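TICKET #2291
ISSUE: user wants both folds in one file
ATTACHMENT 1:
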Amino acid sequence: MPDAAFLPGDRVDLRPIEEDDLEFLHQINDPRIWRAIGASRPVNRTQEQDFFENVVCGDDTVNLLIVAESTPVGTISFNSIEWGAQRAEIGYWIAPDHHDQGYGSAATERLVSYGFDQLGLHKVDARVFAFNEASQRLLESVGFTKEGVHRDEIFVDGEYHDTYWYGLLEDEWRSRDE
């Protein structure tokens, strides 16, 4: 049942990505999305299908669709899960028509909570490009701390850009409401 929420929330639900969602995922070709996530090459339907079959359906990541009032608005995932170190990297994107509505923050809070409460993670990392100020604000609003910078790490729009690394430890997450 494609509409079943895996992680229901007040503002958004997070549900598994299904093959029927591939048309929505194809929006990654929108420059407002690919630029922010550093995917500077177009993705065709065959590549999207391959991503679905090899990444989404694989066991090494957690990939979820962000849904607001039954409408897909973006994706969120844990990538690079290191079970021994109990850490994962979070990544997300929101469709441009749904920016500035709090969906990214709500989804990030929900997935981070799941990571600490259910997966036993100790730390969640995130990478953000220096020009993506909205994503930096999102991470900081959820409690992430900027930990470092990788200089000139990504080539977008004809120039190199820095990548900021953010991190959130489990005890920081749990103490945020105290």
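ATTACHMENT 2:
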Amino acid sequence: MTMLKGTNVPVPAQAVRVELGWRAAPGGPDVDASALLLSSGKVRDDADFVFYNQPAHASGAVRHEGKVTDQDRVTDTLTVDFSRIEPAVDRIVVAASADGGNFGRVTGLYVRVVDARSGAETARFESADATVETAFILGELYLRQGAWKFRAVGQGYSTGLEGLATDFGISVDEPQQAQRPRSPRPTSSPPAPRPVTPPAAQAVPQPVPQPVTQPVRLTKITLTKEAPSVSLSKQGGTSGALHVNLNWEVRKQFKSWGAKLGRAIAMHADLDLDLCALYELTDGSKGVVQSLGNSFGSLSGPPYIHLDGDDRTGALSTGENLTVNLDHKDRLRRLLIFVTVYEGARSFADLHATVTLRPQHGAAIDFSLDECTVPSTVCALALITNTGGDLTVQREARYLVPQRGVSPQRTIDAAYGWGMNWTPGRK
């Protein structure tokens, strides 16, 4: 149902997908979804802010799933599992921020709440009165008398995501001005010092170290054809874990059978994409990390790369995730991240996938795959190279077409000159 600003509806589902959508336009700003988990109107700490640089709440109740592009339509999705929300949380604010412009230049902006299990739409609110705002609270999920509801809000901020976040108690990472030391107030005649008797020797209590809270970083990087590369070192992403996420849209595909009979059978394709990585270490060793053959890798030892599992749902879950241990970046010479179609489609045509690289320290890097126009079943996503200790991420988004009888892995190997020997494998 389409809602008016300020109205509310019950949300009977146990888990929902909160989808922000808009119409992409040349030169228009990008839009990012976020959520704030509130207790008595404020976040309890910075971990209650879920967005592109912090995509999952520790409780697992709220996740940022990422963007999907379908021709001129773009969606960015959050998932909410009410059964996992902590008792102190009584409100979840659903917000949007504009990157590269204001919401007056965004057309067709809406938010809708969908039952995660049945797919039925519970609520929909369309925002059409934005002007100079660069951040928006589109709606909120709130607890009332033991039941969850959704309210259409439509409140804008001209101060962007930073202004919205700080309003709810988030500490944002920003340059701090150095404070000048205070000068002592002059006195007319300082009193003469009194003689002091030295105290007996005693143990001096040591200060207890306090945990250091890292402010939230709101910066992000989008790789495009015009700006395809970025240095991880310059972004501060030189240590810790580098998380690579692949999300895709599960679509219903239609095939026509028996044209003479004039009938069509709708088939649901069980689309399965596999996130993989070719690696080369500085000692010359080479290999692949992939679910095929259960080659999931390792973070504590070579190749310091690990694939967390084989996901067959894409955007309905967390996609596929690969982690690189940047604490051992000096052992890494190059890393090619690629994806293959394992089953459910004959090519990437009409499949919409997004790739996000999240360094533990530094800005998130994301890009979407362009529309495929060739019968490709393997796509090179990104190439990470180590040049003099500087890790550079190069957006590839390169679709390759395997020759008959040649596997996608052999095809990607030949294109990038890895020179490995391949044997058949299975899941």
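RESOLUTION: both attachments delivered.
EXTRA DETAIL ON ATTACHMENT 2: Residues 175-201, 203-212, 251-269, 313-317 have pLDDT under 50 and may be disordered.
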